[in-house]
Amino acid sequence: MKAFTLISTLLSLVLLTSCGKVEPPQFQDIENFKVQSLGLKETVIGLDVAFYNPNNYTIHVKEAATDIYIDSVYAGKFTQDQEVGANGKSRFSIPLTGTIPLSTALKLNLNKLVNKDILFKANGSVKIGRAGIFITKPFDYKGTHRIKQ
After folding, report:
1. What is the rounded CA–CA span in Å between residue 77 and residue 22?
2. What is the pLDDT of residues 89-147, one digit of tens each?
3. Which among 41, 43, 23 is positioned nearest to 33, based on CA atoms?
């Protein structure tokens, strides 16, 4: 049993050192912005966030959570719906879902955001990794984007 523990520990160290530095995904765009459900108290919003994997190898994004601001209005916390794999040096999308209180949805006037340039700000973290070893990387993004219908 001790030999198995020693071998698995050594294998983990080899995997960690052979990976080199894992670069976090680079934010690129917002896609597929949609109102998933509209209620009297809250609105559920879905969107895909496009990233670029700058690494030479496939990574997996296990968890993502971010606070999102749209035109300087705090929209809420958005979380990842499913684990996503991203090939090396390629673009990929992470589906995010968040619940926005009705008062915030009214401030944002969601219908008028489509095909309009908006100031988009996201502060959060992603859990990325490969071969079953994951690390959490923070990110902070601010930029102008056009939400396409």
Report:
1. 25
2. 999 999 999 999 988 888 887 777 777 888 989 998 989 998 888 999 888 889 888 77
3. 43
* Residue 124, token pair as written in the block: 């959060």
Is residue 92 a contact partner of residue 84, using CB atoms and an 8 Å limit?
yes
**Sequential DSSP letters for 17-65:** HHH-PPPPPEEEEEEEEEEEEE-SSEEEEEEEEEEEE-SSS-EEEEEEE
Beta bridge mates, 79 = 65, 97
How much is the average pLDDT of 49-58?
92
CATH number at residue 67: 2.60.40.1820
Q: How does residue 7 score in pLDDT terms, banded at 50, 70 and 90?
A: very low
The angle subtended at Cα 47 by Cα 43 and Cα 53, nearest 5°, is 150
Q: Tell me which residue range forms the domain holding 60.
A: 23-146
Q: Is 3 part of a structural domain of the chain?
A: no
146 by DSSP, 3-state: which?
A: strand
